[in-house]
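chain below, 87 aa
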Amino acid sequence: MVATVRARLEEGLPLADPHHRLRGRPVALRTLGGPTLEIVYRDVPRIEESEVLAVKRLLGPHSYCTVEPHTAETLTVRFVVPLEPER
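prediction:
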């Protein structure tokens, strides 16, 4: 399922992130306890709500996002995605 999420991001991020605020930034994916994936973008200069919502549409209806300061000039954008069991 992680591969599926990664493929959705690679395919859909160019449209969801037209201003390149997430693309090209340091990103980390890790599986959390239980079937949950955390995607963390660091050094993001800014992000609009419309961009967050577009990424959430890529990730699925139960994903959520937090945005917090990383440095004085940049943000950390964290998406959490519940993973469905593969069928």
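Helices lie at 2-16, 49-59. The domain at 2-82 is CATH 3.30.565.10 (Heat Shock Protein 90).
thats it, cya
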